[in-house]
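Researcher: Go.
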Amino acid sequence: MSHKFALLSVASDTLSRDMLASQFRAREALQEFLATRSSLRNSQASLLSGCDAALSKMISEAFSRENEAIYDCFEMIARSICSSLSRGEAPSRADLSELIQLVVCQLSDANNAILAAAQFIADTAQTDTEKLALIDQLTGLPNRRALEDELARRETTGLPEGTAAIMHVDLDLFKKINDTIGHAAGDAALKHATDAMASTLRNDDFLARIGGDEFVLVLYGPSTEEYLALRADQIIENISTAFLFNGKRHRIGASIGIAVKAKADGTSLAKCVINADLALYHAKNAGRGTSRFFTPFLRIQQDQKADLQSQISLGIDTHQFEPFFQPQVEGRTGKLVGLEALARWHHPTRGLLAPFHFLQAAQEAALLEKLDEYLMARTFASMRRWVDDGLNIPQVSINLTGSRLLEENLVDSMLSAIDKSNLSPSMIGIEILESAMIDNESKQIMDSIAGLAEAGFKLELDDFGTGHASISNLKNFKVDRIKIDRSFVKDIHLYPELCKITGAMIGLAHALRVDALAEGVETPEERLVLNALGCDHFQGYGVSRPIPNSEIPRWLRRTQEKKALPPIRK
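Model: Structure:
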């Protein structure tokens, strides 16, 4: 505060003695300056400085609007000082001494006096800017840069008793608040979380917001795992309490990753933050609303995953991935009605891998879009060749994850991909997981699904029965087919209750005038029961294993010569 006032007080010793008496006049001059947003007039400079007209002229020129950077800084300082004077605060002689000395030393050269005053302003403004750069403007907490400075300083000066703990806090349901209610509600949630965490702090704790809905809490001194777990539980409980926004109560949650730096541990504090982030990932996977401690085993898992992700990226670039196709048939006749494109990875050392081995790792490494586009391009190119060879191609279905549905340009991207192969959208089925379909509070997902349907793609609800989709979901999104999850198909002939549940789902599909396809059909007994229940289509190893891309033409010719696959016999 002291130097800020000094910037307005290029003064003599007399000014220091008389400043208290001139507070009202100084405030009045500042208020006039702020109201008119003009250059600092000589009279104002004289009133503020107590100097003669010549020096006041130099000061006013230094703070001219023509010197934009200096003027903006001056205006900010003027507002701050005006507020201070209103509270009855006044500068001390020591506060003014540095600038007074600077100006007095330069009185012999007017230009140098102005230059020196301007430099002092610039230096002080830089100091203020640096301070602001360390503060998160929304919550008032230290930001990521401040956290990095704090940890570096502690590494240099040493930790109390040589120990510390890092808590990485991430808010649950924050994105939902932001997407469905708006960013103002998101800001309110962040402030609520800040207050909730601040209420748990001890004197030496350091809390920072490092971006988005993520916070880091540093606890210095020895702590047991039991104590840290209790602290984490308290933070989660506090954050989970309802907060008000626009007169309505809303709730968010929190997940926490914890990493401990022991006295004899050579791990740096910065590394502990990374470890806490890894523990946070496992807390999220555990169902959210909980905390997890970092262990060396988590690092081994992370390194293995990073290596796998690197191999996936290389595999895409070197064409190791290939679409396989699994037939879908009409239940009663065995007639081929479609193919589902399934990703397979020809791994150089592990052999042929199904999506279970790589899909999640690809998604977490932001490689899923790249992999999907590669496989779609190969699928559509293959379909074009089959058509050109005179083969009758039924619908080919591809899978889209919820993350792909969040892409704003998804529909345009899909249309562009099929245009390159001169295919019709009606030839392509888009399989969407039920769990993604029911997340209809995301406007982008709703827009993507509606856009795909409007463009002419066939929509299929995958893994039906596992995600609790409502009838309104099915009606609003106008799906063309539901795929009953294999968990309702396996050994259906052995469990009467399972027959009733599966029959009800088939009845629901027919009531909505859409087809029902049973996944994971493997045995003749399962096929017979599903036929009796009126299931329209079958897919599974009992029909056919997934077929390599290169073998599909021969398989299609053989099938079409026979007109259909072998029918079901009772």
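Model: The radius of gyration is 35 Å.
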